[in-house]
Amino acid sequence: MKSRGRALKSTSAVKGAGLWEGNTKRAISAGAIAFTLLISYGLVREAAAQEKDGWKGVARTFLWNPGPIQFTETSKFKKNGPWTIAVSNASISNVWAVGWLHSLQYIAAKHKDAIKQLLVTDANDDANKQVADIQDLLQRKPDLLIVRPATAQALDPAVSRAMKSGVPVILSDRSITSENYISLVNADDWSVGRISAQWIAETLKGKGNIIMIAGIAGASPAENRIKAAHEVFDTYPDIKILDLQYTDWSPAKGKTVVAALIQKYGKKIDAVWSDHGLEGSGAIEAFVDAGYKDGEIPPITCGDLNGCLTLAVKHKVPLMNIDYPPAMGGVSLEVALSVLQGIPVPKHYIISSDISISKGHETASVKADRWVEDYAQLNKPNDLIVSTGIPNYDPKTFKAE
User: Fold this and answer.
1) 320-359: b (≥16 Cβ within 10 Å) or e
2) Which residues neighbour 334 within 8 Å (Cβ) at sequence distance 6 or greater?
3) Residue 233 sits in a domain of what CATH number?
4) Does residue 394 form part of some domain?
5) Closest by alpha carbon to 166, among 79, 276, 286?
6) Which of these, 132, 168, 173, lies nearest to 151 by C-alpha position?
7) What is the rounded average pLDDT for all residues in the chain?
8) 78 lies in which domain range?
9) Whole-structure pTM over 0.85, yes or no?
């Protein structure tokens, strides 16, 4: 290249080397810009063509776990089927809990040759009743017991007694205070709390006032999500928590609670950390009723509930939705069947959680698996849970075979 450059400069036809160099530089510059624009245009078109349709791999908490995964040896529980499986459910007091039960029944129908009997009780969120339910179920000599505990502390003795009697116990959704169980199946509450808090902190650029709304006081998902969120918020000295209120994972109560907080704090509220879409949907309704116009409602976090997604799209609310899928009900049953076949299972079985974000509101740390605008089912009811794992799910028409 150097010798060619010298030859060009010595040619008599080119009287002004500077003129040639200037024209050449401008030509190269224009060509580079055009090439860059073409590449950028191609990348933009490629990015636009890529649909964000959800996480398809194994749970990221499994891949990113900083230590070994603990497995429970189950060979002593191996027995010939078909089996009787007992299910002690805390309640079906909200649409998420209904989805959990339907997911379990959906998977049971797929394994009807392996399941002789599926015994299900409902404690109506009464821990004392659930303790009695478990005692009654154990008297029916099940091969395995699945428990979705009302609260961690109250159910620990009953679950421990079941294990001591020789009946293996799978916990689903919520934990107990001890480790007297075979496996806990849920999504990662700590990740839910941290990711949602990190998104809010970065959306607010590290400064602002937040209200926090959560589910049932004492229930492990709510308490662990709150603790995890504080781990994030505590690292941002310019973020202030104005208030924390429990809503029992009720849209109606979420609306009432947030309406009172709006009356108390008004425009001081810069964001709403909600541990689930059930109360999150009520929070958006409260802002609408308080006179906030589309695009004025502060950023909010949600999960699972179609109503929270559709309200955010309708009212142009910046939203980060991280699912806590009730599909874990069905996964719990599959883990139970593995136990009865003597297959080792994880002590903590964490299922995947998808992240959906409204377009234009990804942050440095929190990226979308899909867009809220694509995930929201605008032609479906607000009380639909979108993460049951059941095709074309409708809680009103669902029927297990």
Assistant:
1) bbbbbbbbbbbbbbbbbbbbbbeeebbebbbbbbbbbbbe
2) 107
3) 3.40.50.2300
4) no
5) 79
6) 173
7) 88
8) 62-187+326-351
9) no
